Task: structure prediction
Amino acid sequence: MKRHQAKLATCLVGMVIAAALSIPAVNSLTRASQTTGDNRVLAPKPTKPRSIDDLLKYPKQLEPWINDHFGFRDNLIELNNQLRHAFFGQFPTIQVISGRDGRIFLSSHGTSLPEYSAITIPCGVTPTAPERVAGLLNGLHQSFLREGIDARIMIVPSAPIIYPEALPAWLEARCRKAASPVESALASAQLEAQTLNAIYYPKTEMLALKERVAVFPKSWFHWGGAGPREVAGLSAEHFWKIRRLEGAAIAETLNRVPSDIGHLFPGVNLTSEVEFPDHPRSGIEACLGPKCFPSLGVAADKLQEMAFYRNAGAPHQRLIILSDSFGRYIASWYPRYFKEVIHFSTNSWTQLDAAEKRKFSAYIKEQAKIGHTLLLYHDGSTLWNSVPGGFGADQIN
Result:
């Protein structure tokens, strides 16, 4: 009897162990891994074999999928990321590095790009030709003038330029020795006087601002909150002689929010307190996304990031903003000064075909007949030549 009970107990233990070991396998079949935390495309599930030859090849095709989608893979990756960051201050990607005083920096815009390039290019360690940048700015400005649009250009300095003291010490030392590539371009003899007069590079003002507000939230790549709020007023005054205190101040809320680049390090929970405009409380209508611009059709669907703000109580008529990803963080503050603010990100400009570009450009030209036009790109976009080549005469017509 005792021997039978012992065998039964052994059998039950074996079944429990087998069941426990099978949980990851069952999980992988019912819930495939979705993470991109290791910065690569995960192996796709192979198609079902339809022939003997397919069947013989199937095990080899299935193995990469099993390796990438085993049960609890996402959880294990997040745990690994948490431990590496907690003990060593490391991130699971070359795209992000830890700085000092709790600040992080985007160090590369892609895993195939040079390490630290998102820092070394804006700060001048990686050389850029001032004449090339000056030519880009001349071409951008002239293309709008040819269409009767007197556009203004704002180049936003990125976090390494405003917070160099928060960079890792070795990187700060290299950046401080380098000449500013944006300032070199603005001083270039190749830059036409008319273009120079249309440009605002608020580095000095933002360095002063950081003494009293967080121009860039510590866990963010983009600027946010009080930084762009203040620069909205500074730029309105610089470009159009609009007093910074003109118009009713926009009500705001202070929220603790996750990092805007948190998708690069899943499992590591970094947050910052950021001020956001409270448009409803301020009597401002805000519409976000393609639905706000039905007349643009497919062009709006492809561009994706866009907004329309309406403030009947604002003192001035209209502002049109074309920008990179930095634009949306400041566009929402401009309704203090303008009855209508229209914002489009041009990051997906190259996705539009010729007809869609013509349709979009015609819309911009029509809206620009009343009010002002602002082209806003951060220093990285300008120096990388990723400002839309755009809106050149061949594209805006």
Observations:
- Residues 18-23, 25-29, 392-397 have pLDDT under 50 and may be disordered.
- The two ends are 93 Å apart (CA to CA).
